Amino acid sequence: MTKLMNIEASPSSRIATQPGVARRALNGLTVVLPWTIIGGLLWAGLFIKPQPVGSSVTPPALERRDQFYGLAQAADGAVLAAGSYGKILSIGADGKIRRLPTPTDRTLQDIATWDSSHAVAVGNDGVILRSEDGGQHWSAVTDVPRSDVANKLNRVRLGKDGLAIATGEMGALLASHDYGKHWQRLREEEDVAWNDAALLDDGRLLVVGEFGRILLSDDLGQQWEEIPAPVPVSLMSVSFRDAANGVAVGVEGTVLVTSDGGRQWSPVQLETGDHLFNVLWNAGKKQWLAVGALGRWVTGTPTADGIDWQTGTVDPRDMGWHTGALASATQVWLAGDGIGRWDGQHWSPLKP
């Protein structure tokens, strides 16, 4: 009996019979464990570098979120489209779409080309881009005149020998004579948005903007004459087919015509109140074409008795807006809430 009573208990039985020891061990583990986890995470963050899994995904050139505002014809037959996020796309004759690199993420409002080498694009925050290789590469112009209030540039129009006129907010009327390298103001800053300009064949310059305002200059902006407009609403675009005959369009379905080089304008009564954002003379079809909101189009065909005006929508299933228009061969490219081609009967949008 004495030997049995002197047998030592096992280690586990000793701990079990000493609750104070077990409690202290558990408390120590509770204190040390969180710091161990934190230390491990810090070590992993400092010394373990993540490795990519699989290949990176390149976004498509044309995405559903994109909006495009200006179109231009490249010398190789491609169409250039400028729009949101600083995007410039090249749409080849074979239908292939490429995104061209640009140095900005500002929205581009318009684009134009002089020849196979020189091109220019303008947009929000006073951004102006220029290209000397037909639009394949672009650089930003750094000395653009700026306002302290607003600097959105709405449109750019081109003339001979490197002449360009850009229009925009706060009275922006900018001119370049060297293919977009340098720009200067043609008028002092004022609280009005100039939306478009037309360089007439005889060297005159006509500008349209907010509140129905029209300016005319016989010497490319040295002196100006304000032309009374028959409407008070904003004029968004203007185009001439020769030195005498022109059309201006604007909000609320406004269409104005002139036959004396822009000194007198007459309104056209149309059965639409949809805003019109762009107008051009389609030499191939020998007619005026205006486009705007809700898929609206307006055509004007000169006849012996005047101009025959027609209106409709490009497609009842596609009620998007269009600010860019470019006549190309037998069809017209339209840009806005998407890009597509219209042949006067069928609307064919490009799919992302």
UniProtKB/TrEMBL annotation:
UniProt-listed CDD domains: Sialidase_non-viral
Keyword Hydrolase assigned: yes
Gene Ontology MF terms in the entry: hydrolase activity
Domain Photosynthesis system II assembly factor Ycf48/Hcf136-like span(s) in chain numbering: 101-225
Keywords: Hydrolase, Membrane, Photosynthesis, Photosystem II, Transmembrane, Transmembrane helix
The UniProt record lists the keyword Transmembrane: yes
Highest taxon listed in the record's lineage: Bacteria
Transmembrane stretches, start-end: 25-48
Protein name in UniProt: Glycosyl hydrolase
